[in-house]
Design a protein that fits this description.
heterodimer; A: about 260 residues; Rossmann fold; 11 helices; 5 strands; about 35% helix; about 10% strand; globular; B: about 375 residues; 2 domains; eight-stranded mixed β-sheet
Chain lengths: ~260, ~375
């Protein structure tokens, strides 16, 4: 079986590397993973880079440069099955805030020598450029979900990953709803996957996993205002790691964001 | 569940005897569970002593709102119901049904049922007894008995409590499910507390309950004790915060499947599924199959599901209920109407949890009343699927 192991590649685009690190963070499963799949191209883990094509590609990060817009085409051409991982790759990431501002202003504010920076005016998800076979959400992704996606790929089955609200996970773990106790929470409109980490620590969800399958952001924003949130609060909370995800962008804009 | 009424024996025990009751159940290797304060709410969790109970706390509830307040006394059961129900123990949110392993001798399938605990529930309310009875019908009646539910349920020892408080979201009185407990318990307590005493009238509901009471210090209930207990229940009955008119409700809802109110409520509904999670009778589950990286083991996991998710109605090619209005309608008409067709009773026990724990405060009693106020049609119209 090992002689015919599928070949894995991990690619980085505009991102913080946190999602790739989730793969390295799979300590207990890492050796098993290396036995089940040939890690052929994973620069963050090994300087040994084998040529494509690859059976499975994991793509982290968004497209923010002309060079990357070309490079992602090459990645697609070399990949039989391509999975994007994390909020940058699936929604454009926090860097998509540039989409709603003048990117030159950002460059001038951040870099000492803006003249060295060559970038696009937008940060876009991988799916805006190529066909994507599966998207795994999160900022960062949940490593157990990553193992589930890879295990499902190897078995030729559908990953068991829910697209419903965080609330269902929150109740499954027995946490007490913070929103009903007065703390604004994005859980009802946010895609499950984290296991409701923040509400279980008595914090409101802030939407790392992006919009759930049918997000009623307008109704939630209305209730946030009842709880004392200002339009600015609402515009900002929908403008984080998944700022460019359509449902969140729309709600942010409706409150002046 | 083999409760044999013991002639309705009634006695009075002290707070100290309640401690002995907890100890006696623990000594019988029961997992003793009851109300306790955690995370600003009264939840159900392990109870080692009376001191773990929420003495002196009460809950203030409204649609989409819940908080705790101090009482003026030290009542142990001076609150209504919290975010959780006993469902989480009898019908756990996540359950591994089986695991399969590929070995040298082929595939072996194992079901681990060695850890089934014997539950002792302290403080089960009348609405919750009805909810347990409803889930018993769902899981245990008919030809397809749910084995693991049955194992968790069969030896569960139930100490019920007659409610001394009704929340603003309570409507058990109009559902005929409370506030007085009537059946399905081993022992039932009514808390009597004032400046002069803190005692509990105990009613025996089963042989096991009678046996346990015999081992506790107690005195026969005097007429005055029984009258005081009746007064507690009567006071709660008259303090119901909400009401649901059930007369003709099934026919009304089933005749109004295209009422504009479904779209109005859908504008507010988050489809988050909180109502179904907190409902003590909602029983739907999904099943997930997981395989490991090497393809050498697999497991089947059952999880609580919700009719508010798209996957819930996913048939070949897509979801049947794509709109929030179709999903809210499915939930409410099942709960209040087609549940009667299916199981012979309403699926609602009037506990009010779906009202309190809806993040936007959608109120099932208000939704039903709105449709009753403006019925659109008398005959059933075809289901608008989406």
């Amino acid at each position: 079986m090992k002689a015919q192991r599928p070949r894995l590649a991990v690619w980085k685009f505009a991102s913080c590397d946190g999602c790739q690190l989730s793969l390295l963070d799979c300590e207990d499963e890492l050796l098993t993973l290396a036995g089940a799949i040939e890690i052929a191209n994973f620069p963050e883990a090994s300087s040994l880079i084998l040529d494509g094509p690859y059976d499975l590609s994991l793509v982290e990060g968004s497209i923010t440069t002309a060079h990357d817009a070309e490079r992602i085409q090459m990645v697609r051409q070399q990949s039989k099955f391509l999975v994007t991982i994390g909020a940058c790759a699936t929604a454009g990431g926090i860097q998509a805030l540039r989409n709603f501002a003048d990117v030159d202003d950002y460059i001038a504010a951040v870099y000492a020598s803006p003249k060295y920076i060559s970038t696009l005016a937008t940060s876009t998800p991988i799916s805006a450029h190529i066909a994507v076979d599966y998207e795994l959400r999160g900022c960062p992704i949940n490593k157990a979900q990553l193992i589930e996606v890879i295990s499902a790929y190897l078995a030729g089955r559908k990953p068991s990953i829910a697209a419903h609200s965080v609330c269902i996970e929150c109740k499954q773990r027995g946490a007490v709803c913070v929103m009903v106790q007065g703390t604004p929470c994005l859980g009802p409109v946010t895609h499950a996957g984290c296991g409701a980490i923040c509400p279980s620590f008595r914090r409101g969800c802030y939407g790392c996993y992006g919009p759930m399958e049918t997000p009623n952001t307008a109704a939630l924003a209305c209730e946030w205002q009842v709880l004392g949130a200002t339009p600015r609060d609402i515009a900002r909370v929908f403008s984080t790691f998944n700022a460019a995800a359509e449902a969140f962008r729309k709600e942010s804009k409706a409150h002046g964001g | 569940m083999q409760h044999r009424p013991d002639g309705g024996t009634k006695a009075v025990i002290s707070r100290e005897a309640l401690q002995q009751l907890i100890e006696a159940l623990s000594a019988e290797n029961c997992r003793v569970l009851g109300p306790t304060v955690r995370d600003g709410a009264i939840v159900y969790d392990e109870i080692a002593q009376v001191g773990n109970l929420p003495a002196g706390w009460t809950d203030r509830q409204e649609a989409g709102r819940y908080h705790l307040e101090r009482r003026e006394d030290d009542a142990l059961f001076g609150f209504a119901v919290g975010p959780q129900s006993w469902k989480q123990f009898l019908h756990p949110p996540v359950e591994t049904l089986w695991t399969a392993r590929q070995g040298d001798d082929g595939i072996s399938i194992a079901t681990d049922r060695s850890e089934t605990p014997i539950f002792a529930f302290i403080g089960v309310r009348a609405c919750e007894l009805h909810a347990i009875a409803i889930q018993d019908r769902v899981f245990l009646d008919g030809p397809y008995r749910d084995v693991t539910y049955g194992m968790r349920r069969q030896d569960a020892f139930i100490v019920a409590v007659n409610c001394g408080n009704a929340a603003a979201t309570c409507f058990c009185a109009s559902m005929g499910t409370g506030p007085k407990v009537d059946a399905g318990f081993d022992l039932a307590l009514t808390e009597l507390i004032d400046a002069t005493r803190h005692e509990f009238v105990v009613e025996v509901g089963s042989e096991a309950g009678g046996d346990l009471l015999d081992r506790l210090p107690h005195r026969p209930a005097a007429n005055a004790d029984l009258l005081a207990a009746e007064a507690v229940i009567a006071r709660t009955q008259s303090a119901m915060g909400r009401r649901l008119e059930t007369d003709g409700l099934k026919e009304l809802l089933q005749a109004n499947l295209n009422h504009p109110r479904w779209d109005e409520v859908a504008a507010r509904c988050l489809a988050c599924g909180n109502c179904t999670s907190v409902c003590p009778t909602c029983f739907c589950t999904t099943v997930e199959d997981h395989s490991d990286l090497m393809g050498s083991s697999a497991e089947r996991i059952r999880k609580w599901d919700s009719c508010f998710t798209l996957d819930f109605s996913y048939l070949h090619g897509g979801s049947v209920r794509t709109t929030a209005s179709s999903r809210y309608r499915q939930w409410m008409t099942h709960k209040l109407a087609s549940w009667i067709d299916q199981f012979g009773t309403s699926g609602c026990v009037g506990c009010g949890r779906c009202i309190t724990w809806c993040p936007v405060g959608i109120d099932i009693t208000a939704e039903a009343a709105a449709i009753r106020a403006t019925p659109q049609s008398r005959k059933g119209e075809p289901h608008g699927g989406t």
